[in-house]
Amino acid sequence: MRIRDLGVIDDAVVELAPGFTAVTGETGAGKTMVVTSLGLLLGGRADPGLVRNGTGRAVVEGRLELPADSPVAARAVEAGAELDDDGALLLSRTVSAEGRSRAHVGGRSVPVGLLAELGEDLIAVHGQTDQQRLLRPARQRGALDRYAGASVAEPLARYRETYRALREVSASLEELTTRARERAQEADLLRFGLDEIAAAEPVAGEDVELAAEAERLGHADALSSAATLAHAALAGDPVDPEALDAGTLLAQSRRALDAVRHHDERLAALADRLNEVGYLLADVAGDLAGYADDLDADPVRLSAVEDRRAVLAQLLRKYGGEENSLAEVIAWAEAGAVRLAELDGDDDRIDELGARETELRAELAELASEVSQARHAAAGRFAEAVSSELAELAMPHARVTFSISQVDDLAGIEVGGRTVAYGPHGVDEVEVLLAPHPGAQPRPIAKGASGGELSRVMLAVEVVFAGADPVPTYLFDEVDAGVGGKAAVEIGRRLAKLAESAQVVVVTHLPQVAAFADRHLVVEKTNDGTVTRSGVKVLNDEERVRELSRMLAGLEDSELGRAHAEELLAAARAPRHR
To answer: Is 130's pLDDT higher than 80?
Structure first.
């Protein structure tokens, strides 16, 4: 992760690694900015006040190494991001001094909300001022379910499938019953339309044919007169035998050419073409005579055609589509008949759905009870394990319990003689309670613990839960606040244990905790008189002894402090290599 112009950090690179990484440094050196940077990178709230004085913006960039089957990688790719050549995902967050914030995932600009969405599955942050991931009841229920394993997972999977089926059946039933009036009105409209179309018995293309017939019948006199005149001009008028016509003139032309055609082939060809014209002229004249004889003005037929066209036009206005054709009217009738059959069968469908809903509710109640019983059984084991861990973390009298309850709901399902609300995860509301000392009333951990106690409770929960939580990285900010001595050693030991199954990053002031780290980073601050700069350095073995000595005695080169630091490192390493 690279941090630029954030708080006291000018430009620093934080190289995290698998296992347990400790981050230490003098007060005010910028350790908190490392935590803040991770928060920004994973969708946290942007505070323009954190932008370094004299600069326009702060930038945090990170590179995530993800397994091939990571849901985070899949979600990022779904959002349009690209992984680099090594399959890693690049994240970036920019905060301007004016308060504007921009986010990038895999080289693509994205809403900041996507970073927060990815962060939910990437990192669990535990700090004294953070809203802890496990403080949310939904997360507590999920943690308990994963801890319980198959005893909850198997019936819960069946419950969710039944829940989904019940929701679908109930939605269909509600739609059918609450929209009975609308469905009846729809059925009446469909029946009227189908009866109207059935009475008319339209045929596809009929309207086009009738339009042509109406046009012909409406102009029958004009058409007959024109055909008669044209025939007379071509073949002669019987009333006036002396009048010239096209046929007579054509015959004269043919005779003139036939007399001399043997003198020139070109003229002979023209004479042949003139013969063809003669045949065509005779055909056209005959067709005109037949057309005039067949054409008869029929007012009765014209009236019938116009009446039929009016009926069809009414159907087209009501049921025609974009093309305004009778084919669309016929298609509407076919679809309407299918829909009417569905509506007429709704009463039977309502009875079927009602019976199915009753059956699913009974099945869901049985599965909900099975899930709830398994949760109660797992809750006792989980709480006892967490309480045992707290005893080693300077909270010997603290007791953790689970409150598992249900909310009454008249519209819910009956479980154990009560009608309770149900949801996709069952009927239980799960909450972790803490009694920090004997006689104290158990209260939700967000209210029953101080900042330092809360971090230790979260650490205890995560240690007990190690390996079952899909989140790959944990960040603890001063989880050791308010403790020291043996309790600090036990905190370090448990962080190391958690790091066996996940990546753990801890910001700490205690050398007893830092000694257990696989990798030690120190935030160093220098002041050149004008600008404060911070850098993050990876310590080698010798530098680590000096840093632990400083944390122990306040003096890096104190012989006593160095001896104590070396002793701490040896003690921290010994149990892990036995």
So the answer is: no
Rounded Cα distance between 454 and 448, Å, is: 8
Encoding tokens for residue 23? 């981050």
Angle at 565 between CA 560 and CA 568, to 5 degrees: 130
How many distinct structural domains can be found in the chain? 1
Asked whether residue 218 is domain-assigned, the answer is yes
The SS3 call for residue 411 is: strand
- pLDDT of 577 reads 42
Residue-averaged pLDDT of the chain: 84
| Count of positions (residues) in the chain | 578
**Mind listing the pLDDT tens digit for each residue in 368-394?**
999 999 999 999 998 998 898 888 777
240 pairs with which residues across the strands? 237
Domain assignment of residue 354, yes or no = no
Residues 6+ apart with CB under 8 A from 119: 41, 42, 43, 44
Is the separation of the CB atoms in 4 and 535 below 8 Å?
no
Contacting residues for 250 by C-beta, under 8 A, at least 6 apart: 274, 277, 278, 281
Residue 199: inside a domain: no
Q: Tell me the β-bridge partners of 473.
A: 123, 503
Q: What is the pLDDT of residues 150-160, one digit of tens each?
A: 999 999 999 99
- 214, part of any domain: yes
Judge contact between 459 and 467, C-beta under 8 A.
Answer: no
Of 507, 528, 451, 537, whose CA–CA distance to 130 is shortest?
A: 451
- Residue 514 to residues 54, 212, 269, 526, 564, Cα–Cα distance (Å): 34, 98, 116, 22, 13
